[in-house]
Design a protein that fits this description.
The complex is a heterodimer of chains A (105) and B (671). Chain A has 105 residues and is mostly helical. Chain A has helices spanning 5-26, 30-53, 62-92. The longest helix of chain A has 31 residues, at 62-92. The radius of gyration of chain B is 37 Å and the shape is elongated. Chain B has 671 residues and is an all-alpha fold. In chain B, helix 1 runs antiparallel to helix 4 (115-134) and helix 11 packs parallel to helix 14 (323-343). The chains are: A mainly alpha (105), B mainly alpha (671). The A-B interface holds A 21, 24-25, 33, 97-98, 100-105 and B 639-640, 643-648, 651-652, 655.
């Protein structure tokens, strides 16, 4: 099986995404779910870097910039997410995601 | 003091104000109400005296003050005040007699629980009557006329808890209303024919030469001049108010009211209004005299009715046993005299008799009130008697009034005024029958007044009340004395030697020569009546209440008919009353059968339509909306079931969905 570096990178990111997805789906703790989500996000970032590095014009640095922005946004998102976790904890004295369903229709 | 025409409204306004105070004062404010009523009447009396002084400066002038009441189409409906000697003399009489009656009432009604209302009504009565006098418009006069009717209704029915008083009030109101219908029609016709209702309006008024000539020149049904027809319609109103035959039936029943009310109605106000009205519109009634070919002269009708009434009242008075009823029928009779005088063309003597009658009849009624008050509300002359000794003042004044009514010669006012009327009737060119009726009534009047005085004051007390009688307080006797002085002396303003009153009212008045023979005849007639009364009642006074009347002993059936008032009430009950009952029954049947059925049918239709509408609403329209909204609701419920709030399941769905999309894309790419 002839695997190029790009394929390896994509396989790695896919694996990382799956690990993140399973983590997010299987955990009740909100923080761990957030961790999973972050993993999936980073899998996406790896894809971006990989396509840039092995793509047609790697010299221009666009992929790195893209990823930097994504990381910044992810950081902001994580901050919001953690703030939500704290709010949920205040509200129900724990952070179990299964119980945080008060907006249910 | 002078009161010009434009200030005349003050005269009725003051008693009206007093009535307003009485209406709003609390029930216990007896002194306030009575005081304001008496004070208002006293000031009105002074104002009337001022008006009289003003009017006498130039008796021939009709001073008017007209003003627009409201705009009507292109013109305006105008009312006004009128000041001439007629208004002024009547005003002085009404306010003076009214004032004395008010003062008397303060004593007579002192123990009544509704004392306050009584004075309120009295003031309203006085105000309405005074408004009627100063009006320069038939419309304003009519308004006040109806107010007089209303006030009389309230006062006659003042003791409305007695069924007889309530019935009498109703009878007075309805009977006078029949006459008033004629007056109203006449008023409308007059307005239609002349476009004005003002009496005097600088040549345009309905009592002035121009419009009168126009009215008498037109003819209507049966060749009557329009002025005759209108005059007769107006006379209907006057006949109702002044108790003329055939509308006299209410007057004796009006006795159910408190005695001061009887005095007020019979002397100064209500009944005087009719005579005053005819005297006021006399030129209108006399307008057809210039038409020799007219089939009927309005004044002939007035004279005939007056003569019938004068005779009828005097005849019935002979057979009555209630002190107030005797006086009531004498009022009917005296009013007949006044109408007779108006009819024969001598309206000034009618007013002369009206003035003297007002004083002596007020005196007689208040005297009767004093007797009733003293005798503990005993009104039946058979159970009175012997009151001369305990009631000295009342007896003396009552005797003066009685002699004035009977027409005792020379000293008493009634003699002069009645004499003037007989004189005028004698000179009437159309017929001597009214004159004859007047002469017979003179005898009867003298007879029944003697009977009244003899039964009440002479002999021995024949009843519980009379035996314990005591003289009334000064608040009641002082007005009696004042009225007695007027009743005696007032005649001297109109004697044949010095006809001041006649000249003042009508500057063209001239005494006809040769009246002294006539005067002698009437003195003989009065003496006959007095002598017969004396022989039958005073010579041998009645000894017990159950004893038959001397006239009854001699002619029992005649006396029974007289006591029954010649059956007029029964006749009216059998004709008018029955007709009314029939009409009412017919209307009732019409209501129940025809109108009720129609209404029920319509109601059924309405119900049916309502039912149909309801069914449509509920089943069709509501059903459709219910189904639509039910569908929406179940759809919403189904969707909301998917929103579990469980973040994991959401994420799971997203992942599955993403996987499916990825697969589809991959497979699509493959293909």
């Amino acid at each position: 099986m002839n695997l190029s570096p790009l394929h390896l990178c994509l396989l790695f990111s896919s694996a990382l995404f799956c690990v993140g997805l399973i983590g997010a789906l299987s955990r009740g703790n909100s923080i761990l779910v957030l961790l999973g989500v972050e993993l999936m996000l980073n899998a996406g970032n790896i894809n971006l870097i990989a396509f840039w590095r092995f793509g047609p014009a790697p010299a221009e640095g666009t992929g790195v910039l893209f990823v930097l922005f994504a990381i910044a946004i992810a950081a902001a998102e994580a901050a919001v997410g953690l703030a939500l976790v704290i709010a949920v904890h205040r509200h129900q004295r724990n952070i179990r995601l299964q119980e945080a369903n008060h907006l249910r229709g | 003091m002078r009161v010009p025409a434009h200030l005349l409204w003050l005269i009725p306004a003051l008693p009206l104000l007093a009535a307003g105070i009485g209406a709003f004062a609390p029930r216990t404010a007896r002194r306030t109400t009575a005081g304001s009523a008496i004070a208002a009447m006293a000031i009105s009396f002074l104002l009337s005296c001022g008006a009289l002084v003003t009017a006498l400066r130039d008796p021939a002038v009709h001073a008017v003050h007209n003003f627009a009441w409201f705009d009507l189409g292109h013109g305006a409906l105008r009312l006004g005040w009128l000041l001439d000697p007629l208004t002024a003399l009547m005003g002085v009489m009404v306010t003076l007699v009214g004032l004395l009656i008010f003062i008397f009432s303060a004593g007579y009604m002192a123990e009544d629980a509704n004392f306050k209302q009584f004075f309120c009504f009295l003031s309203l009565f006085g105000a309405a009557m005074l408004g009627l006098l100063v009006a320069n418009s038939l419309l304003l006069l009519f308004i006040c006329w109806e107010l007089v009717g209303l006030a009389s209704y309230l006062l006659i029915g003042f003791w409305f808890h007695q069924p007889s008083a309530a019935a009498a009030a109703k009878k007075a109101f309805i009977t006078t209303r029949i006459g008033d219908l004629g007056l109203l029609v006449g008023l409308l016709w007059l307005y239609d024919a002349t476009g004005s209702l003002l009496f005097f309006d600088g040549g345009e008024g309905v009592l002035e030469a121009g419009p009168l000539a126009a009215l008498s020149a037109q003819t209507t049904v049966g060749g009557l001049a329009v002025s005759t027809a209108i005059g007769l319609l107006i006379f209907c109103g006057a006949a109702g108010k002044s108790g003329q035959f055939p509308l006299h039936v209410w007057l004796p029943d009006a006795m159910e009211g408190p005695t001061p009310v009887s005095a007020l109605i019979h002397a100064a106000t209500m009944v005087a209004a009719g005579v005053f009205l005819i005297a006021r519109v006399y030129p209108l009634l006399a307008a057809d005299l210039t038409l020799p070919s007219a089939p009927l002269h309005a004044l002939s009708v007035v004279a005939t009715i007056g003569a019938i009434t004068a005779l009828l009242g005097a005849v019935i008075a002979v057979g009555q046993n209630d002190i107030k009823r005797i006086l009531a029928f004498s009022t009917v009779s005296q009013l007949g005299y006044m109408m007779l005088a108006l009819g024969v063309g001598s309206w000034v003597t009618a007013i002369f008799h009206l003035l003297t009658h007002a004083f002596f009849k007020a005196l007689l009624f208040l005297g009767a009130g004093s007797v009733i008050h003293a005798a503990h509300h005993e009104q039946d002359i058979r159970r009175l008697g012997g009151l001369r000794a305990p009631l000295r003042v009342t007896f003396a004044t009552f005797a003066v009034g009685m002699m004035a009514l009977a027409g005792v010669p020379f000293l008493f006012s009634g003699f002069w005024s009645k004499e003037a009327i007989l004189h005028a009737a004698h000179g009437w060119s159309v017929s001597q029958l009214p004159f004859a009726a007047g002469l017979i009534a003179v005898v009867l009047t003298a007879f029944y007044t003697t009977r009244l005085v003899a039964e009440v004051f002479l002999g021995t007390p024949r009843g519980e009340g009379a035996a314990r009688a005591q003289e009334s307080p000064a608040v009641m006797t002082v007005p009696l004395v004042l009225l007695a002085v007027c009743a005696a002396l007032l005649g001297f303003i109109g004697t044949p030697w010095w006809p001041w009153l006649q000249r003042t009212l009508d500057p063209t008045f001239a005494t006809e020569p040769g009246g002294f023979g006539l005067m002698a005849v009437s003195i003989v007639l009065v003496a006959t009546g007095l002598g017969a009364g004396w022989a039958l009642y005073a010579r041998i006074p009645r000894s017990s209440a159950g004893e038959a009347d001397p006239v009854e002993r001699r002619a029992p059936r005649l006396f029974a008919a007289l006591a029954d008032r010649l059956g007029f009430d029964e006749l009216y009950a059998a004709t008018v009353g029955r007709l009314n009952a029939w009409t009412a029954a017919f209307a009732d049947a019409l209501d129940r059968r025809v109108w009720d059925g129609t209404v029920r049918l319509l109601a059924g239709l309405g119900l049916f339509t309502g039912q149909v509408t309801r069914e449509t609403d509920e089943n069709l329209i509501n059903g459709g909306f219910d189904a639509a909204s039910g569908g929406l609701r179940s759809g919403g419920r189904a969707y909301s079931r998917g929103q579990s709030g469980d973040t994991h399941s959401y994420l799971r769905y997203i992942a599955i969905g993403f996987t499916l999309i990825a697969l589809a894309v991959l497979l699509g790419v493959r293909r």
